[in-house]
Amino acid sequence: GVEVGPQPQGVARADVLDKMRKIVKHGLDFVQLLNEGKEFPPCTIEVFKIMEKVDYPRNKNGEITAIIHPKLQDQDWQPLKNGDPLFLTLDGEVIPYQGNCTVYPTFINEAAYYEKKQAFVKTEKIKLTAKHLRSSVS
């Protein structure tokens, strides 16, 4: 499956549709070239691995007590370091990120995830190496 986004629920965006078409085309081109016997050299790419889902701060009744800090809003895939603003309470208090490593948040403040108690997802940037690849079909 391919998920391209973000985009609000029930909204069709031309830019997101264009990205989806391009990624599907690249995938199909790859399959065709592999089936034709093209060899692909080893390569290394950076990817983001999910570490954990992070909920909003809540009170004892389960009610949200802080919102995403404005400096974090719309900063998907950008580095978040220890001490950076994370949440903002309704009283104006900044709740900073407290972590021992830089993370890369994504799905920040997505409406579809409120009911799932998810303010964002913490990811880490890692490198994956693919070995030489060629079809075994002759």
From TrEMBL:
Domain AstE/AspA barrel-sandwich hybrid: 44-125
InterPro entries named in the record: AspA/AstE_fam, Aste_AspA_hybrid_dom
Gene Ontology molecular function, alphabetical: hydrolase activity, acting on carbon-nitrogen (but not peptide) bonds, in linear amides
A Pfam family assignment: AstE_AspA_hybrid
Gene: Aspa_0
Official protein name in the record: ACY2 Aspartoacylase
Cellular-component GO terms for this entry: cytosol
